[in-house]
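pasting for the record
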Amino acid sequence: MPEPAVPTAVTVLAADYFRSYSVVGLLAALGVLFVAVAFGAGRLLRPSVPTPEKLLTYECGVDPVGEGWAHSQVRYYVYAFLYVIFAVDSIFLFPWATVFAAYGATTLVEMFVFLGFLAVGLLYAYKKGVLEWT
């Protein structure tokens, strides 16, 4: 009769590692099951009486007029995109300011390189005429 294998430290660590993932997997499965049951119960319990009025597009109590597509200008999206780029980039200035004293001149040079890239991007947008409102 063969002797049972003695668990080694590696197998014990691997078992603990996968046990922690099994808890995450179990919670994810329970979450998916909860959502599926909620949607299923809603589908079974709600009344369904489709009429032509109920199938119309509804917005703020006004009957829809014309087609559903509206024209919008791209420049508004470009302004929003530029704002997001510079807002996110400015967020990087705050952590830099906290470590500036610890690292000194190296971080100062890196930040000027970073700000240089931002300036080149802004100059490019200006040369392309993106920042003109009319």
